[in-house]
Amino acid sequence: MPDAGARVRELRALESLAAGRTAVHRLHPLAKLVASLVFIVTVASYGRYDFIRAAPYLFYPFIMMALSESPYKLLLSRVLIALPFCLFAGITNAILDTTAAFTLGGVTVSLGIVSLATIMLKMYLCVMAALILVATTPLTELTAQLRRMRAPSVFVMVFEMTYRYVGVLLEEVRSMIIAYRLRSGKKKALEMKHMGSFAGHLLLRGFDRAERVHAAMCCRGYSLKHIPPARRRIKPSDIIVMLIVCVPSVLLRVVPLY
Amino acid sequence: MLRVSNLSVEYADGTRAIEDLSFSIEAGESVALIGANGAGKTTLLLAIVGVLPPIAGEISLHSSAAGPDEQKNAPAQAARGAVKPELVLTQRTGKDTLRELRARVGVVFQNPDDQLFMPGIYEDVAFGPRSFGIEEAETVQRVDAALSSLGIAHLADRSPLKLSGGEKRLAAIATVLAMKPDLLLFDEPTAYLDPRAKRNLAQIVSGLPQGKLIATHDMAFAAETCSRVLLIREGSVMEDGPRDILFNARKLEAAGL
Questions:
Q1: Is residue A11 domain-resident?
Q2: Per-residue pLDDT for B152 more than 80?
Q3: Are residues A124 and A162 in the same domain?
Q4: Is the predicted pLDDT of residue B146 greater than 70, yes or no?
Q5: Same domain, A124 and A36
Q6: What is the mean predicted confidence (pLDDT) over A128-137?
Q7: Residue B155 CA to its chain's centroid (Å)
Q8: In chain B, pLDDT over 70 holds for what percent of residues?
């Protein structure tokens, strides 16, 4: 199992990025949330062979990362986690759809390959947009804004709890692995015969720990139904930035440039 | 200030954790809750704030200013907002009352890692006031005051992962103080602390003006911080009296200690 402690640190690093003070961080959460949602929906709406048409959207993550001073390495490494899933989804297209699309330097590229590339590009853009949003907006502000927008409370809770408890679960994995290694002699990895018991204990311990953290949150006023008041009003400058992202994104999708 | 009357609490599997338990705490009073492992100390603390609902009995919280003299002037004080309304927690208590109760009773958990769940200490201390809808300017003021009063203002921008056990404990207390509670509940506050950190904590806890209920196995800490002792066994009160109980080996042994 990879170093769970490192995963916890990465998760916390992403959270600590949200405490930055750049212009992007200072934007109202509503503006960032709407801009990200419009961007993601627009990108996701492209067809399976629209690689070239979707390519100009690559500017967005790079511009936002530069403006928010987010570390490229950290965000890109997070995107790689989603890579295998998209690869599995797109690889069948590459194998089954062998119709020639175009020839590049004497090599014929099939529609299946174009489709695979488009899926990968769309995945990259959508995940990056979501990561940039999380890296520039504190989770509490984000979920509070979702509640103010009357997003389904179950959706907000799942988002909040998953984000909060992934760290809790990883911390439990770390301490269990340390305890296992200290008593397992020369064996470095977890043995298959112990996997079931390990996973069962992890589930129960994670559940127990999550209950305690949840109790601590409730004791300090956390409530699913409570809609927190806005800490500040949205300003015209926030709306302008939101439009700067939304309008070109939608225009690029609606008006075919090539 | 706090009155617990005939309280009974059951776990989800039907185990009776607290049985017909009654006691009260006056404003500013410090009470040690002593009992063996599994006696029901943590369960009682969680029941007081409604995390574990009672199956019988009630818990009531009066305003900290509601002494005999103040009670005469209660209507006038209530009109000025000086006297907070009495809150009663029973089986059928609504969510609004529960929320109000949690704003007035702060719980410091045994493991500070359970309590510190935000990326930074400042955010963590601000979590309570923000959840209760306190204005941002006042939240900032409260967070600064809570951190400064415990001498940990320099930790505001640090991650909880980078703190020592003693620092985490103080940060956990700050998260509760920022809510300006009338009553503080401590669950094993000296757990994971070295002797020096314990002494420091005892000084800090003694200096807090709120009423306190401190569940602990640490007799020296209890003797230093509390004037009264509540000895419990199997979810029921065995003894309720002055701190001399802490030095009575026969009574402690009878409580399973």
A1: no
A2: yes
A3: no
A4: yes
A5: yes
A6: 92
A7: 23
A8: 92
The phi and psi torsions of B230 (rounded to 5 degrees) equal -115, 110
The mean-pLDDT minimum among A57-61, A187-191, B3-7, B129-133 falls in: A187-191
Q: Is B106 on the interface with A (CB under 8 A)?
A: yes
Closest C-alpha among A130, A199, A140, A139 to residue A169: A199
Q: Is residue A3, in this structure, part of any structural domain at all?
A: no
In a domain, A6, yes or no: no
B chain contacts of residue A212, beta-carbon cutoff 8 Å:
109, 111, 114
Q: A81 with A198, same domain? A: no
Q: Give the nearest partner residue to A164 out of B113, B117, B179, using CB atoms.
A: B117
**pLDDT computed for residue B66 by the predictor:** 43
- ipTM of the complex, rounded to two decimals: 0.77
Backbone angles phi, psi at B80, to 5 degrees: -90, -5
CB B39 within 8 A of CB B62: no
Confidence grade of residue A244 (pLDDT, cut at 50, 70, 90): very high
Q: How confident is the model at residue B70 (pLDDT cuts 50, 70, 90)?
A: very low
C-alpha B245/C-alpha B189 separation (Å) is 20
Contacts made by residues A162-165, CB under 8 angstroms, sequence distance 24+: A163/A139, A164/A139, A164/A213, A164/B117, A165/A206, A165/A210, A165/A213
Report how far residue B194's alpha carbon sits from residue A62's, in angstroms, rounded to the nearest whole number. Answer: 49
Domain span at residue A217?
147-221
pLDDT at A228: 67
- What token pair was written down for B52? 């574990």
Q: What are phi and psi of B108, to 5 degrees?
A: -105, 115
Looking at residue A204, its amino acid is L
- The letter for the amino acid at B90 is T
pTM above 0.90, yes or no: no
Rounded to 10 deg, the angle between the A139-148 and A29-44 helix axes is 80
Which residues on chain B are in Cβ contact (under 8 Å) with A12? 119, 159, 161
Domain contains A61: yes
Which residues in A lie closer than 8 A to residue B120 (C-beta atoms)?
Answer: 16, 19
**Residues of A at the B interface (Cβ-Cβ below 8 Å)?**
8-9, 12, 15-16, 18-19, 138, 140, 164, 171, 209, 212-213, 215-223, 225-226, 228-229, 231-232
Tokens of B210: 């709120």
Confidence grade of residue A83 (pLDDT, cut at 50, 70, 90): confident
| Beta carbons of A68 and A24 less than 8 angstroms apart | yes
